[in-house]
From TrEMBL:
Keyword Iron annotated: no
A Pfam short name: SH3_actinomycetes
Alphabetized SUPFAM superfamilies for the sequence: CBS-domain pair, MgtE N-terminal domain-like, PRC-barrel domain
Recorded GO CC terms: membrane
Name of the protein described by the UniProt record: Flagellar motility protein MotE (MotC chaperone)/sporulation protein YlmC with PRC-barrel domain
Keyword tags: CBS domain, Cell projection, Cilium, Flagellum
Protein source organism: Nocardioides ginsengisegetis
Amino acid sequence: MSTTPSRVFAAKLVGLPIFDPQGDQVGKVRDLVVALRSEVSQPRVLGLVAEVFGRRRIFVPMTRVTNIDSGQVYTTGLLNMRRFEQRSTETLVIGQMLDRTVTIPSTGVVGTVYDVGMEQARNRDWVLSRVAVQEPARGFRRRGQTHVVEWRDVEGLTRREDAQGATHLIAALNEMRPADAANMIHELPFERRTAVVAALDDERLADVLEELPEEDQVEILEHLDSERAADILEEMSPDDAADLIADLPPDTAATLLNLMEPDEADDVRRLMSYAEHTAGAMMTPEPVILGPDATIADALAHVRNPDLTPALAALVYVCRQPLEAPTGKFLGVAHIQRLLREPPSTLVAGALDDSMDPLRPTASIEQVAAHLATYNLVAAPVVDDDGHLVGAVTVDDLLDHMLPENWRDLVLRPGDARPGHRRGVSRG
């Protein structure tokens, strides 16, 4: 480990890619596992929590780490693919130590932990050696003063808190993609998860909820007050909100729908009116819809919206007024590739593809899959019997419904481990 820096801070490790000796990426760092014994002796770092294929979390012992530099982590390539399960004697640095209230006795400073540094001891073990502490903000200062001190100079690190904050953990989660943040939240202890959910803003929580397993979605929503739960549902895409509401007790579902904005609730109710596993049930009612008098420049401006998924940004749906689903007469779609080849000032109606029959709301999952595959599409319009556009089905919607219900929490079968990766590696 001659090129490994002398000290590495945990927050900088999160998200770094993990490579095997051949240079192939095998995962990403999600946390550090340590054994806390006392506030005097430096805790030994047992290993990394790594996220590998299928969003599964595994344990990587520090004895398998050969190098850590500013942008990646290298391992011996011998990884145990068994799902990581935290033991009672172990502590997660990111998940459980950040935001812990501590005291620096020599100065009387009281603050919260926002990072922890580790380094190699003489016996080559990795240990936690530094603690980064932030004081509460005072006066007009947005952030309190920070201190980086020796592990032994801090008190309160081994004490579990009933009301531990989540400020710095939230900062780490906000750096992740929603799916990665959801995976970390899924693994948190109940009390810590509750604190995180309370601290996340509504839009971010909605993004994360869409990526969580159904049982987690329901549990989180049922522990929120009704007003906030309704606000979260409004921030979610209507199809995901409809799926979640359908999993709630009928009385709770009715209460939340009544608390939602009428337009948002109407979209959800309409989606819930379609039979399960049909195009109508899985579609989104909010694709990019424009009138025939819109220009190519208008269309390109709409698909540049960063909130659109790539699949939704691939097509523009051209309809007569009204331009909200259910729309006026559906005229056709314009593909993003065609739009990019046309002069910006020309009308989008001149770039229409009207050669494909649209899907009906009653189309089965198999019919939707066959339609997308036949025409090499990532999205397709859904039109009712009167020729009105009622939504669009995207390939990600389709996959969500075709995969097993618990696909987000699936583990790899023993035969699925990468060749050459060894099982049965202990915590060391």
